[in-house]
């Protein structure tokens, strides 16, 4: 039971013992698992301070020299603040860089709207050449570290901040991009921490659950095969509905002439200045277990 971040950097530490081309560039941001890396591999770590855009440019230069670079910061700062630099320096030139953001959704609940990350999927998925990985537990996060190290194209990994129960076993193959966790007439497609919410709701209403962890590129054929017998589909995300997971699934349905009823559950078009913890924020926005259960049940009726 460790955070995704610690599982991820623990794996990077193991890889770095063999591969000294692995480098981490951070923007004034640390972690218990990263401290061990810094201590044992000081020449493979750079802290640029509060200068996220410079971090991307520096990392691009290192990548062009053959380094396997991971850039790391709080999610809104490594995506939105750096967006143009990622487009020009990384995506446009198809540079193999690993962009690691921590704090999906309302992970930094008490830090307010500046630290909430509810638009990163919408923004990052428009960039050509970029893969997006969204793990749902620490086992998957650790495996994504290995996968990212082997990639020759840019990748963005969105990590949750809190400790989540494990869903998968060590050694699970995540190359399919999605996993059908449960069967049902109604399927809930979720990503990240909301996969756990989907499993909770499934216990109440008997819904099927699909964990969609490779947001881009999506394995469309497997997704469509997985819901081919579904009577209805729900998408569930702790993310803005505009351009998020629900939009992605709706686009796939439209492009493939899929006529299964679709319900999107997520964050509406608004910034929320809410406190009292993540569970309280989710409750107010209708993303808690009871609210999601009620929304789906009433929609099915």
Descriptive account of the structure:
Helix 8 crosses helix 12 (289-300). Helix 7 (138-150) links the parallel strand 5 and strand 6 (155-159). The chain has helices at residues 4-18, 32-40, 52-64, 75-79, 83-91, 120-124, 138-150, 194-205, 220-226, 245-255, 278-285, 289-300; strands spanning 22-26, 45-47, 68-74, 97-102, 131-133, 155-159, 178-182, 186-190, 208-212, 214-216, 232-240, 262-267. It has 2 domains: 4-159, Thiamin diphosphate (ThDP)-binding fold, Pyr/PP domains (Rossmann fold), CATH 3.40.50.970; 178-300, Rossmann fold. 40% of the residues lie in helices and 21% in strands. It is built from 12 helices and 12 strands. It is globular. It is of the alpha/beta class and 301 residues long. A 7-stranded mixed β-sheet has the order 2-1-3-4-6-5-10, sandwiched between helices. A 5-stranded mixed β-sheet has the order 7-9-8-11-12, with helices on both faces.
């Amino acid at each position: 039971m460790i955070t995704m971040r610690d599982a991820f950097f623990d794996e990077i530490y193991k890889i770095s013992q063999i591969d000294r081309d692995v480098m981490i560039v951070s923007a004034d941001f640390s972690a218990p698992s990263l401290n061990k890396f810094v201590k044992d591999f000081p020449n493979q770590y750079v802290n640029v301070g509060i200068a996220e855009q410079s971090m991307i440019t520096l990392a691009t230069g290192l990548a062009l020299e053959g380094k396997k670079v991971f850039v790391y910061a709080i999610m809104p700062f490594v995506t939105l603040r750096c967006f143009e630099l990622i487009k020009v320096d990384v995506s446009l030139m198809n540079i193999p860089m690993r962009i690691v953001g921590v704090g999906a959704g309302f992970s930094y609940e008490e830090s307010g709207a500046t630290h909430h990350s509810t638009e990163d999927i919408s923004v990052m998925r428009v960039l050509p050449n970029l893969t997006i990985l969204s793990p749902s537990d620490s086992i998957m996060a650790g495996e994504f570290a290995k996968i990212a190290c082997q990639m020759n194209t840019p990748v963005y990994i969105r990590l949750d901040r809190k400790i989540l129960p494990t869903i998968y076993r060590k050694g699970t193959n995540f190359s399919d991009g999605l996993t059908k966790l449960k069967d049902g007439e109604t399927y809930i497609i979720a990503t990240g921490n909301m996969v756990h919410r989907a499993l909770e709701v499934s216990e109440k209403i008997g819904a099927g659950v699909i964990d969609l962890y490779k947001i881009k590129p999506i394995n469309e054929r497997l997704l469509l095969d997985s819901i081919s017998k579904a009577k209805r589909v729900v998408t569930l995300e702790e993310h803005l509905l505009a351009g998020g997971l629900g939009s992605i699934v709706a686009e796939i349905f439209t492009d493939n002439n899929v006529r299964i009823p679709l319900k999107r559950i997520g964050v509406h078009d608004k910034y929320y200045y809410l406190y009292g913890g993540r569970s309280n924020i989710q409750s107010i926005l209708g993303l808690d277990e009871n609210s999601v259960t009620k929304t789906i049940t009433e929609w099915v009726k």
